[in-house]
Structures are given as structure tokens and as C-alpha cells.
Design goal:
Elements (H helix, E strand, L loop, with lengths): L6 H8 L4 H52 L15 H5 L7 H14 L8 E4 L7 E12 L1 H14 L3 E9 L8 E12 L3
Antiparallel strand pairs: 1-2, 2-4, 3-4
Amino acid sequence: MRMPTPPNLRSATRRPVTAQGLRLALELLLVRHGLALIGLGLPTIALLWLLLGVLPAQQRELASLRARVKAPAPVVLAVAPQDPMAPFRAVLQPDETKMEVARALWRAAADAGLQPSRVDYRNSPVTPAGFSRFDLTLPVAGPPDVIRQFAFSLLERYPGLALEKIELQREAAMQDQVEAQLAFVLLLEAPK
């Protein structure tokens, strides 16, 4: 036995589907079942984003980390600590040479044409760093450029020698000769 077709379905099947009818059907579907579509649609979109975007990126990152872990670690050689004072200690003169250097300053001043009158010297106590100072003062007279060349030649000859001070005095402005006080410091190894 056949069931009779309700009258509202008969009329719907006979009418052709138009754009307005389709729009109306979609709007009714959205109004009646909108929350269900949103509730199912958003998780579906999130799941697709996770499966297609995030997981492949994490797999690539994990593969690169595994490759980095498998790579051998660079070998670091232990370097023995160096003495930071080694370059300074290399220029220190032995304590026994201080009088020899004082005599050499006197001779060098005389050889340069300067007129040395004396060499004053003074010993300083040994510092906690393990060196001592030997202060030398050399009063000379001569032309200023010769005095300057003399001082620089001494600094080149003795690496442990430092020029601490130069005092120049001239009696008259037109005079070629000046009187100079050259103060040197000779750095010495601590006596043993």
C-alpha cells in the first residue's frame, strides 16, 4: 500500500528551484541549525589547520633538532692560562744591571754632544707585582732637538726604560742651548 504524499511536498517538487528559493532554504537552514554548524565548523577548521599547518612544521623542527643532536660536538682544546703580565715582565732588566745602565746613560749623553753634569739615582722598594723602580735623573745642556733625539734613542735601546719627565729651561728666548732635567725610570726584576 502506498502512502499518500502530503500536499506541501507535492507542490515543492513541482516548482523549479530558483536562486531565491535556494537562498531562502539556506537561510532557513542557518537559522534553524546555525549554532550546530558553527559548533561543528570551527573545530573542523581548527583540526584542518593543525593537521595541515602546525604538525608538518613541528615535524621539520624535530628532524632538524635530531640532526643537530647526531652531529658530533666540536672539540674544545683546553688552553693553559697565560700570565697577563708576561709581556711586561719580558722588558724588565735584571737588578744587577742598574748601575751599568746609569753609566751607559752618562756615556750616551756625552757621545750625543750634551753636557751631562751628573746622574742622580734612587732605588724604590719591590712592588707587590714583583718588580722595582730605579729612578734616574740626568741634567743635561744642549740644543732641544738633540735632547729629544737622545731621549728617544735611549728608550729604543733599553725596553725597560721609561721617560717620566722632561723639564726644559732657557735663559733667553733667542738662545739655542737649553738646560734639561731628564727623569727616567728603569723597571727591574725583583732581586732574588
